[in-house]
Amino acid sequence: MFRHILSDFDLTREEDVEILDLSEKIKLRPGKYGDALEGRTLIMLFELPSLRTRISFEAGMTQLGGHAIFYGVEGGGFTRSETLEDGVKVLSRYGDCIMARVLKQEAMERIGAAATVPVINGMTERYHPCQNLADLLTIREKKGRLEGLRIAYVGDGGCNTANSTMIGCASVGMDVTVVCPDNPKYSPDPEIVAKVEERSGRSVTVSHDPAAGVEGADVIYTDVWVSAGMEEEKAERMKAFPPYQVNAELVSHAKPDCIVMHCLPAHRGLEITSEVMDSPWSVVIDQAENRMHAQKGLLFWLLKK
Ligand code: CP
């Protein structure tokens, strides 16, 4: 039976750890896994642009001895006249796995319902589970553990990376604080918070005070203030988010050995300053590299289990 990863909720704590362990093994001994997915094909559907997700999946498949095919239709809709379901059923006959980046989670769920091979969410407006697996791998590498660490997600608490950070980090035993403007639009979705708390047994803290919110943090995480599909709200967002910029003054309130993460692409001078991006606190390039390693672990786990 095949599995889909349509959101971070599709993986249990044990499965997260299993995939991280596998990713680490493959990263440390790439030669051993050079033909692990020989003859396998990943089909990559993109409705939105990407640098990291596209290239890291493609490079990862190559390194595992398999092959990836890119099919991109920017602006919505993968097919010209047929239904999404018909297209996905056909693609399931050509490939061993489908990875999709679509604007709406609803479309991701439709892809999952129609596919007869595993489907991986390569980002929707709601979730970014591959990003979180890479983030967890990075935090574990840098800190030597996950359980008991404190992560402060600073910025848009309602965006996809905030959701995936809450779900994935709480699942593996981290304390999560979301530091965001005092506005329901920029705050975590109460439904997601309730589900995170129920499955992890941990509370998600929400703070509107940037300095207090990052106090004692082992990890500070931020992302863009205007996500894909929110361009019309740009002016309003540019007024709301500046107090939540990750700059050296803000980082000074966290633990002295804290690490700073960003899923990239970053807008230097907006959500994060160059001073922090280029500082010893920053792990953003290692984090981006780990997209490939974590996805290799995930692909191996999905296709070879
Ligand atoms: N972080 C991330 O998903 O990057 P891309 O948009 O470049 O894929």
Outline of the structure:
With 305 residues, this protein is an alpha/beta fold.
Low-confidence stretches: none
Physical arrangement of strands within the biggest beta sheet: 7-6-5-8-9
Q: Can you identify the CATH class of the largest domain? A: Alpha Beta
Query: Per CATH, what is the topology of the largest domain?
Result: Rossmann fold
Q: Structural class of the helix and strand makeup?
A: alpha/beta
The 3D shape can be described as globular
Helix content: 40-55%
Terminal-residue CA separation: 10 Å
* Mean pLDDT over all positions: 96
Q: Domain count, please report it.
A: 2
H/E element order = HEHEHEHEHEHEHEHEHHEHH
What small-molecule ligands were found?
A: phosphoric acid mono(formamide)ester
Structural summary, described in words:
There is one protein chain. This protein has 305 residues and is of the alpha/beta class. It has 2 domains: 8-128 and 290-304, Rossmann fold; 129-287, Rossmann fold (3-Layer(aba) Sandwich). It contains 12 helices and 9 strands. It has helices at 13-28, 52-63, 84-94, 105-114, 129-143, 160-171, 190-200, 210-214, 234-240, 248-251, 274-277, 284-304; strands at 41-46, 67-72, 97-101, 119-121, 150-154, 175-179, 204-207, 219-222, 259-262. The chain has a 5-stranded parallel sheet. It has a 4-stranded parallel sheet with strand order 2-1-3-4, with helices on both faces. Helix 1 crosses helix 5 (129-143) and helix 3 packs across helix 4 (105-114). The longest helix has 21 residues, at 284-304. The radius of gyration is 19 Å and the shape is globular. The protein starts with 12 loop residues before the first helix and ends with a helix. The relative contact order is 0.16. Bound molecules: phosphoric acid mono(formamide)ester. Phosphoric acid mono(formamide)ester is lined by residues 50-53, 123, 131, 263-265. The site of phosphoric acid mono(formamide)ester has 9 residues, from helix 2.
